[in-house]
TrEMBL record:
Biased composition (Low complexity): 514-523
Domain Fumarylacetoacetase-like C-terminal: start-end pairs: 19-223
Protein name, entry field: 2-keto-4-pentenoate hydratase/2-oxohepta-3-ene-1,7-dioic acid hydratase in catechol pathway
Native source organism of the sequence: Serinibacter salmoneus
Positions with a binding annotation for substrate: 366-369, 388
MF (Gene Ontology): catalytic activity; metal ion binding
UniProt entry tagged with the keyword Protein transport: no
Keyword Metal-binding in record: yes
The entry's keywords: Magnesium, Metal-binding
NCBIfam families recorded: PRK08245.1, PRK12764.1
One Pfam family here: RraA-like
Positions that bind Mg(2+): 389
Cofactor(s) required for function per UniProt: Mg(2+)
Regions of compositional bias (Acidic residues) in chain numbering: 495-513
Length: 523
């Protein structure tokens, strides 16, 4: 049964609501589009002056770019609710209607999260055109659809909500008394995007499985150009960047933006020449140089590469798992936990290092997390636990070192606990910012202040070892040669000096010849 009201200043509502509360993220499709699933709902307020009815135009100010629409289900409170259970929540909802949670992303940066200026403008909360009696519908079986210029762009049901409608009402009621007429905007599914002057956005909420298939009808919102002229002396001015464009349109692709480069980047504090030296130096040589400097316990033991032959170099970003305990997993294992936060936060050139206590009886990451790290430009992943989806992780291409494959999910052995602290991985301590280097011999951890010194020493040792190997091939015995005694050392230094002199002379000759012929001179 549909309860119709005239669509006036407050849409179909019989009175001005005391408050309008909106949910940031609630649909799984939208959360996945944004690349994060929150552990609990979060909210922001919209003023009642932002309300409008069906047919009322919404203004995009002159000089702005990103007017975004979001089709949503709106709940209208019918009786006072305070400290109620989720089972009681629906009894306090009088009506369901359609909403368009309009936002101007050009103004979002200064108030991101609170959305005061970006979503609080006059006319930015259209409701209607009709109200559905909440008693006539199942809160788990409502549908919301949105059309842009007649093309269906959003469609989802409350069955896919991360946080059900009753949970949202009960959660809000434990913090603030919900009063008669208050409105709750329950979030938008994937497909929300940008509209321009001349476009028309339509939103409909219905209950197709309920008797009579009650519907709100289509909430129609034409987009028009409005006045701009923001006063710079009063507050923030509209501003956009590619991150705002991607959020407003729903994705970089929809916004017409190229995907960010996945090329390895130089992490802060790891200069390009040092990165090159560490990439060239073998882990065995680096280990030898650290041992000479009194550091014996610097190898992450028991891990092997998924991509033999691929070098790993980067700065450590750490993640710690605790042994599984049911009550701790209930509080820390679900939602946006430490594991997901780490893979979301890892930056270009960083290596995620995971403490799993050597417990390989469960996966500590799978292909989705590996893909997230790879997309962020991470240099690699090291875990002294197991990896799920082993073949799929290997196909992602990011260097991964692990104790091996295991099909079980995280909760079998581990609780994701905390991040960005000093951990123990494979028997060695790893601090955030340590330099991690891996090759087929294994993985080593280098204190940043020693990195350049040991890299240069390891490369020098490689040159020396290569010279010794050549002498061995010539048939010389090892005694006195490996390691070199004074006689062999004198010969080595003499031949090395001669080789360097010849190389310098050759380079100078080639330069002079190029200058004589005009090559490379700009002629």
């Amino acid at each position: 049964m549909t309860d119709s009201h005239s669509s006036g200043r407050y849409g179909p509502l019989p009175q001005r609501p005391g408050k309008i509360i909106a949910v940031h993220l609630s649909y799984a499709s939208r959360a996945d589009q944004r690349g994060r699933r929150p552990a609990a709902p979060s909210y922001f307020y919209k003023p009642s002056s932002s309300l409008a009815g069906s047919g009322a135009p919404v203004q995009r100010p002159v000089g702005t770019e990103l007017l975004a629409f979001e089709g949503e289900i709106a709940l209208v409170i019918g009786s006072t609710a305070h400290r109620i259970s989720a089972a009681q929540a629906w009894d306090h909802v009088a009506w369901v209607t359609a909403a368009n949670d309009v936002g101007l992303y050009d103004l979002r940066a200064a108030d991101k999260g609170s959305n005061v200026r970006s979503k609080g403008r006059d006319g930015y909360t259209p409701l209607g055109p009709a109200l559905i009696d909440a008693r006539a519908v199942d809160p788990h079986a409502l549908r919301v659809r949105t059309w842009l210029n007649g093309r269906l762009v959003q469609e989802d049901t409350t069955a896919t909500l991360l946080f059900g409608l009753t949970q949202i009402v009960a959660d809000l009621a434990q913090h603030a008394t919900l009063e008669v007429g208050d409105v709750i905007l329950t979030g938008t599914p994937a497909g929300a995007s940008v509209a321009a002057p001349g476009d028309v956005v339509e939103v409909e909420v219905d209950a197709p499985e309920a008797p009579g298939s009650p519907t709100t009808g289509r909430l129609v919102t034409p987009v028009v150009e409005g006045p701009g002229a923001f006063d710079p002396d009063l507050g923030s001015l509209p501003a956009v960047d590619d991150a705002q464009r991607a959020d407003a349109w729903g994705s970089r692709e929809a916004a017409g933006l190229p995907e960010p480069s996945r090329a390895p980047a130089t992490p802060p504090g790891l200069e390009a020449d040092l990165l090159a030296a560490l990439t060239a130096a073998p882990v065995a040589g680096l280990s030898q140089q650290l041992r000479k400097r009194g550091l014996q316990n610097v190898t992450i033991d028991g891990v092997r590469p998924l991509h033999p032959g691929r070098k790993l170099v980067g700065r450590a970003r750490t993640l710690r798992f605790l042994p599984h305990r049911e009550d701790l997993f209930a509080t820390h294992g679900g939602g946006y936990n430490a594991q997901k936060r780490t893979f979301d936060a890892v930056g270009p050139g960083e290596v995620i290092v995971i403490e799993a206590r050597g417990e390989a009886g469960s996966g500590t990451l799978g292909d989705i997390l590996a893909l997230r790290a790879h997309t962020n430009g991470a240099a690699g992943i090291v875990t002294d636990g197991g990896v799920r989806d082993y073949d799929a992780v290997a196909e992602v291409g990011i260097p991964v070192y692990t104790r091996g494959a295991h099909p079980a999910v995280l909760g079998r052995r581990h609780v994701p606990w905390d991040t960005d602290l000093t951990i123990a991985c494979g028997g060695t301590a790893v601090a955030p910012g340590d330099i991690v280097v891996g090759d087929n011999d294994g993985v080593i951890v280098i204190p940043p202040h020693l990195a350049r010194e040991v890299a240069e020493a390891a490369l020098a040792q490689e040159t020396e070892d290569a010279w010794i190997a050549e002498r061995v091939r010539e048939g010389h015995p090892l005694d006195g040669l490996f390691p070199m005694d004074a006689t062999w050392r004198t010969r080595y230094e003499a031949e090395t000096t001669e080789s360097e002199t010849n190389e310098a002379e050759t380079t100078e000759s080639e330069t002079n010849e190029a200058e004589t012929t005009g090559e490379g001179s700009g002629a």
